[in-house]
């Protein structure tokens, strides 16, 4: 049961990231975006992955679908971080042309 609850948690968090990535891509700005928050989220996901790895070494097997969603969410949040730096570069380019 705990694996199902964890899966629901990770999937619910994961549903928001594609929308956020799309918004950041279209906005082409860093306004309203906290890159520090995103780094904290990535750290949290990495700690979740590390926790699963530690449990695995102890013989506690985590279902593969939970690993998948932790890794997928980490990649999506990392994409958001990359878009932040892309948007910051675009903002600086716009400032130079004004």
Strand content: under 5%
Query: How many helices in DSSP terms?
Result: 3
What's the order of the H and E elements?
Answer: HHH
* Count of structural domains: 1
Query: Low-confidence runs (pLDDT<50, min 5 residues)?
Result: none
Measure the end-to-end span. Answer: 57 Å
Rg from C-alpha positions?
Answer: 17 Å
Q: How helix-rich are the residues, as a percent range? A: over 70%
Describe the overall structure.
By secondary structure, the chain is mainly alpha-helical. It has one domain (2-9, 32-97). Helices cover 85% and strands 0% of the residues. It contains 3 helices and no strands. It has helices spanning 2-27, 35-57, 64-97. The longest helix has 34 residues, at 64-97. It is elongated and about 60 Å long. The mean pLDDT is 93.
Overview in brief:
The protein is mainly alpha-helical and 98 residues long. Helix content is 85%, strand content 0%.
What's the structural blueprint in terms of helices and strands?
Blueprint: H1 2-27, H2 35-57, H3 64-97
Keywords:
98 residues, mainly alpha
